[in-house]
Amino acid sequence: MTVLAVSEREVRELLAMRDCIEVMQHTFASLSAYGSVQPPRIVAWQPDKRGAIAAMPAWLGKPVTLGAKLISVFPQNRQAGVESHQGFVVLFDSEHGVPRAIVHAGAVTEIRTAAVSAVATRLLANEDASHLAILGSGVQAHAHLHAMREVRPIRRVRVWSRTPEHAQAFARETHDQHGLHVTAASTARDAVEDADIICTVTAATSPVLEGSWLKAGQHINAVGSSVPPFRELDTDAVARARVVVDSYESARNEPDDLRIPLREGAITQEHILADLAELTSGVRAVRNSTEDITLFKSVGIAIEDLAAAHAIYERAVREGRGTQIDF
Fold first, then answer.
1. What φ, ψ does residue 235 adopt, rounded to 5°?
2. Are 59 and 36 in contact (CB under 8 A)?
3. Looking only at Cα atoms, what is the longest distance across the chain?
4. Could you give the CA distance from residue 240 to residue 237 in angstroms, rounded to a whole number?
5. What are the residues facing 89 on neighbouring strands?
6. d(Cα 284, Cα 306) in Å, to the nearest integer?
7. Beta bridge partners of 325
8. What count of other Cβ atoms lies within 10 Å of the Cβ of residue 173?
9. What is the pLDDT of residues 106-128, one digit of tens each?
10. Which of 160, 170, 216, 324 lies at a C-alpha separation of 20 to 30 Å from 64?
11. How far apart, in whole angstroms, are the C-alpha atoms of residue 45 and residue 27?
12. Which of 311, 298, 317, 248 lies closest to 89 in space, CA to CA?
């Protein structure tokens, strides 16, 4: 048996952000017709809560894909110059269950997470949205800037980080790379004040975005919080917004961004108006007016990883990329 190993560098070469956005759009639009099976993720935290390991298995109906992501998450890794997400996406043959590929999960997670936010932004943000606020300055901040530029005419960017030096470095790097007007904000409130699109991509355990700061017409991608104890949005921000999720089951049971407002009684289950499958297939519409505040609460689900890894695997096979390992 041979297994194709695809490295981080090859993932980035084989899956461009623009292509991944289309893969994610197609994947969610196909769910109602072709279905998927994905149990809730299994997470084991170290006793000191420094890090965790998670398993995310799934079966996807189109393209038919069987596999799982096994990934560790150590939020403080950046201080040591190490990425926070480490692991593999493993693809199996759906007929006999034979392993076919091992794909670098950190790179897959980085690209597909921002691509899914771009799908939501394409469907929810106002067409003329051009001012982007990013709360956070790490890997997902860079990926989301790239993704937002693929779906909206971004001309101004303000970034905030709990470490001001990181925000300043992000502003310098992205200005030099993209020629955009990018500035570092001294506070999160200053960053989002005039924004059309807000992306929260932090490892915060208490809210960094407050509902009292929001203005009519804004769209929010809340990305950094997927399991307790992480939380980026206060209850008022969620209550003021028209909410879309990537998975009803995961969103109601995993992220404190939604679990806490639900527990407090500030919102009900019906406050979640649609998932991405309904939105992409046109079953439900969420933005009724340019004045609506919309929120995409991303938790990251296994079918996103499988769809991205499958696209990488198919292209790698076509082009003779990756490394064949004899098992």
1. -60, -40
2. yes
3. 58
4. 5
5. 69, 103
6. 25
7. 3
8. 13
9. 999 999 999 999 999 999 999 99
10. 324
11. 30
12. 311
Task: Give the tens place of pLDDT for each residue, 173-201.
Answer: 998 888 899 999 999 999 999 999 999 99
Residue 19: CA count within 13 A, CB half-sphere: 14
Tokens 């894909």 locate to: 65
263: left (phi over 0), alpha (psi -120 to 50) or beta: alpha
Find tokens 């790490």 and name the residue.
Answer: 138
CA distance readout (Å), 279 to 91, 135, 235, 262, 293:
27, 25, 24, 22, 16
Q: Which residue has the tokens 């072709």?
A: 34
With beta carbons less than 8 A apart as the criterion, state whether 11 and 144 touch.
no
Beta bridge partners of 99: 92
pTM of this prediction exceeds 0.85: yes
